[in-house]
Amino acid sequence: MCGICGIALGGGGEVDPATLLAMTRAMSHRGPDGDGHYARGGVGLGHRRLSIIDLSGGAQPIYNEDRSVVVVFNGEIYNYRELAQELKARGHRFATESDTEVLVHLYEDLGEGMLDQLRGMFSFALYDVRHDRLLLARDRFGIKPLYYHVRDGDLYFASEIRPLIAAGYVAEPNRQGIHLYLQSRFAHGDETLFRGVYRLAEGSLLDWRRGQWQVRRYYANPVIGGPDDERDFDTLFDEAFGDAVASHMVSDVPVGAYLSGGIDSTAIVARMAQHARKPLHTFCVDFAGSASEAAVAERTARRLGCEHQQLFCGAEELLALPEVVRSLEEPVGDPVIVAQYALSRATRDAGVKVVMTGDGADEILGGYQFLAATIRALRWQRWIPAGLAQALATIAGHVPLPLVQALADLPLGVAAEARNRLAWMIRRLPDATAGEYYDLLLALHRPDELAAAYSPEFFRESGDFAADSFAGTPAGATLADQVLSLQYRKWLPANINLKQDKLAMAHSVETRVPFLDHRLVELAASFPLRVKLDGRRNKILLRQAAQRWDLPAEVVTGRKVPFHLPLGQLVHDKRVRDMVDDNLSPARVRRRGLVNPDYVAFLRKQADAGDYLQGKKLFALVILEIWFRTFIDGEER
Predict the structure, then answer these.
(1) For 314-371, how does the pLDDT look when each residue is reduced to its tens digit (9 = 90+)?
(2) Alpha helices in 566-610 (DSSP H)
């Protein structure tokens, strides 16, 4: 895990080494173990290194035998040993034991076709000197970040946005990106909240040749669904999952894990324990005064022989929002980011550089409640005529909240919002698409709330923005399979993976995600729905596997405990109230011109009364204002 950056000049000239140095310094936290630079003519590459594989010999940039191909790389190639063996058999000479070096030799043989051979998480920049070709690439599911910006015909790119600022980019807000953020709590297109700065999409490459460039996808997200045949799904899953975990343990430094107490992370740790020669280091967050899996995690850690550390998260951690937002760069409107940030800091303080996480399990195995709700709504669609839908929506809007809580298995604090969204879904039954339902269930703000939430000026402006769903393009054999496919395009790379990478790398910690090993993802995609999701049962395949592995019953059958801060309590802490006042005073809100001050007052009142979702909306606005002050206003925070 490292940081990369670079420049390609479109009109000739020489890359300024001082600019490259400024770019690498801006992301020194991503690679405290060393830096390296390459500059030749109009192309320059920079690198910050976090040493994990080939500690003494893997310094970058790395070259092929005659130095006609050079690369800087961020991530891990888990099958690099097999690839290196094949390349050596074909006559290639290796100068290091690093996984990075396979890239230059693979490129010599296969060109951009090399990407199909890679198993891992990565972003890299490879320069072909002979053909004056620069190739940027990002892994299949966007685990590793890569941003780019074109200014006056010149290309600037980096693992983070601050190096682009160090190279002369002047930060401006992208107002359409802000609109997307307020809808979904993250900027869910390839645009960011920074005007003119783009993410290279997951599974894509950027091909730059003498100032001409194009972005294209090299990997299409897997089509979900396959035949419900005689395959032994349990055995296939066990083997693929075990192989994914084992491959992700490739490292020359110890590998730990985040252990929440839920089934995803517990399954990871159980499989890791089979390969570890020493007790694993595991880490968990305990939220003050809130539902928590910390006690389950501690019992599981003892059972698996782990050295376990529990981190308390409360008001003190919430007050760190300014430094968290600065590290995140792209705001994600969920205050739980402070817990992930603190967890990464504790990991590094314990001397652990690499940790596994359970991210991706919900995506590949149908773990989210909103997926099941979307599938049910679409199945009802064909049976309910428009007139009946309107009548049922009226009835649904008056269902008692305790009944909503019981039926939806939700905390009472969000039952009122769940009821509103249920009524909205039923009203749209006659003609809604899967993407519309998906957007509604995941939205921070529903479309009908925006007129009240936005300032009149910003609401009028938002009407001119291009409509942008944060569902991906459906790719499945059946209606249900199509729903499961929606989250690969935006939800996963622009939200889940973005948070994990940025908040861990702020403390020079590499996170690995075995559930997103592309071989496992593609295998799970080919399985029929019944082994993933059935009614209110989810991740069936994983739960059955956990039973066979003799994991604790409280893990196997336990309901998912939301990973969130107890906002209903924390908003009453004077220091937290002061932070909200400082960032969302009526004068400041009016000056920013995006949100209606009366709406902010409403959110504050509801949050004080214990409404969790309204509290979450409130802190999404706090986070957005901190982002403005940090990156647009240039305040030191």
Answers:
(1) 999 999 999 999 999 999 999 999 999 999 999 999 999 999 999 999 999 998 888 8
(2) 567-570, 574-583, 586-592, 597-608
In this chain, the answer to whether the domains covering 2-217 and 233-365+488-556 adopt an identical fold is no
233-365+488-556 maps to which CATH number? 3.40.50.620
Among residues 2, 5, 306, 313, the one annotated as catalytic is: 2
Structural domain boundaries of the chain?
Answer: 2-217, 233-365+488-556, 369-484, 567-632
Residues 520, 367: Cα–Cα separation, whole Å: 16
Whole-structure pTM value: 0.95
**Spatial distance between the Cα atoms of 395 and 388, rounded to a whole number of angstroms:** 11
5 among known catalytic residues: no
**What one-letter code names the amino acid at 346?**
A
What's the pLDDT at 1? 63
Assign a CATH topology to domain 2-217: Glutamine Phosphoribosylpyrophosphate, subunit 1, domain 1 (3.60.20)
289, 569 contact by CB (below 8 A): yes
pLDDT at residue 559 greater than cutoff 80: no
Confidence grade of residue 637 (pLDDT, cut at 50, 70, 90): very low
- Band of pLDDT at residue 635, cut at 50, 70 and 90: confident
